[in-house]
């Protein structure tokens, strides 16, 4: 079980890296192509006696840039997948910001009960959105609508939107794990990020360096 969990966590991190890398690569190529053809045109005007067909190269690069109209849609899709897939990753790594200043003023048993209540609310929220978005995906599947600028390669709208129920289902699982850990007294709250504590640690590190 631990091995499967470790494999999934590595896949989770690797998939997020892949989404970020793919977004960066597609955007980089599109920007380069949109600025490169003008360079070849300028070079052809400045070096008219060149044996290399610089105008033809510029036309080719421009044609490649014009055919990449799908790049914006693909980048938006990758970004959407990054957001919803990263929700569960943020829960696991305490990436979401928590506001629990008042909760910490209470005793540890009270913090545990508040943590359980908050966890139940998060489970209800994630479960509700997962089920509702799955019904939305079923409607898109029946409609069979192609994705904007990506439909010509067989990508449908439901392919893109599938990450919404999947992402919230993963969030539901992560909060279920937190709920169990709170019951087992392995933690008291949701384990969210504390900006104030992080700021104090940074300030202390800066003082130590100086």
From TrEMBL:
GO terms for biological process: C4-dicarboxylate transport. GO terms for molecular function: transmembrane transporter activity. It comes from the Bacteria. GO terms for cellular component: plasma membrane. It is found in: Cell inner membrane. The keyword Ligase does not apply. It is a multi-pass membrane protein. Keywords: Cell inner membrane, Cell membrane, Membrane, Transmembrane, Transmembrane helix, Transport. The chain crosses the membrane at residues 15-33, 40-58, 78-103, 115-137, 157-176. Residues 65-184 form the Tripartite ATP-independent periplasmic transporters DctQ component domain. Signal peptide: none annotated. The complex comprises the extracytoplasmic solute receptor protein and the two transmembrane proteins. PANTHER family: 2,3-DIKETO-L-GULONATE TRAP TRANSPORTER SMALL PERMEASE PROTEIN YIAM. Part of the tripartite ATP-independent periplasmic (TRAP) transport system. Belongs to the TRAP transporter small permease family. This is TRAP transporter small permease protein. It comes from Pseudomonas fluorescens.
């Amino acid at each position: 079980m631990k091995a499967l969990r470790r494999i999934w966590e590595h896949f989770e991190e690797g998939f997020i890296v892949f989404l970020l890398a793919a977004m960066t690569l597609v955007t980089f190529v599109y920007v380069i192509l949109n600025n490169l053809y003008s360079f070849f045109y300028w070079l052809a005007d400045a070096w008219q006696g060149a044996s290399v067909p610089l105008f033809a190269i510029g036309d080719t690069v421009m044609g490649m840039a014009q055919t990449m109209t799908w790049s914006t849609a693909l980048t938006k899709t990758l970004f959407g997948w990054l957001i919803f897939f990263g929700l569960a990753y943020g829960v696991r790594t305490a990436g979401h910001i928590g506001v629990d200043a008042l909760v910490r003023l209470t005793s540890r048993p009270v913090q545990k009960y508040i943590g359980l209540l908050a966890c139940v609310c998060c489970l209800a929220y994630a479960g509700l959105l997962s089920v509702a978005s799955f019904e939305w995906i079923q409607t898109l599947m029946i409609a069979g609508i192609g994705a904007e600028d990506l439909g010509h390669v067989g990508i449908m709208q439901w392919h893109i939107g599938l990450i919404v129920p999947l992402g919230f289902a993963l969030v539901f699982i992560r909060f279920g794990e937190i709920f169990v850990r709170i019951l087992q007294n392995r933690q008291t709250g949701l384990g969210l990020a504390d900006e104030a504590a992080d700021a104090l640690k940074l300030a202390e590190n800066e003082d130590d360096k100086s």
